[in-house]
Predict the 3D structure of the following.
Amino acid sequence: MTTQPPHPFDDRLYALRTRWEQYLADGQLEQFIEFAVAVDSLAEHFARLRLPGLSRLCEGLEKAVLAHIGNAESHPLPTQARVALQRQIDALFGSIATSQPRVPVRRAEEKASAQDHAWHRPRSVWLVAAAEREDVADGLGTH
């Protein structure tokens, strides 16, 4: 079982994944309907965000799910239907993973000791200026 994610967008993905896992474990019609609702919620979310590719994938999954809603005797689904739905779910999650921006890896850097900061000490600065701009050079020299 996966742990609950920290972001609101990930909550929908988490709900979709857990509803599917629960259905695979128990195979009850009620769980399949909860899974269908989670798919619908994700499809609407992608439509609101104007993400047409992800929205189409969700709508395709939603149509496949709705085609399998029947009565309680038709559940659990046959293995072939479950495998087909699993492929669509995997394709959706793969597309979502590639559509999210890459976050650069943060590295913990060691703090330099005070001895390494020799560049902080005063330095000589040479200023080269045109003869007619002597006032600028004098102004910088007083700072």
Q: What stands out?
A: The CA atoms of residues 122 and 143 lie 14 Å apart. The domain at 8-99 is CATH 1.20.120 (Four Helix Bundle (Hemerythrin (Met), subunit A)). The radius of gyration is 30 Å. Residues 79-99 form the longest helix (21 residues).
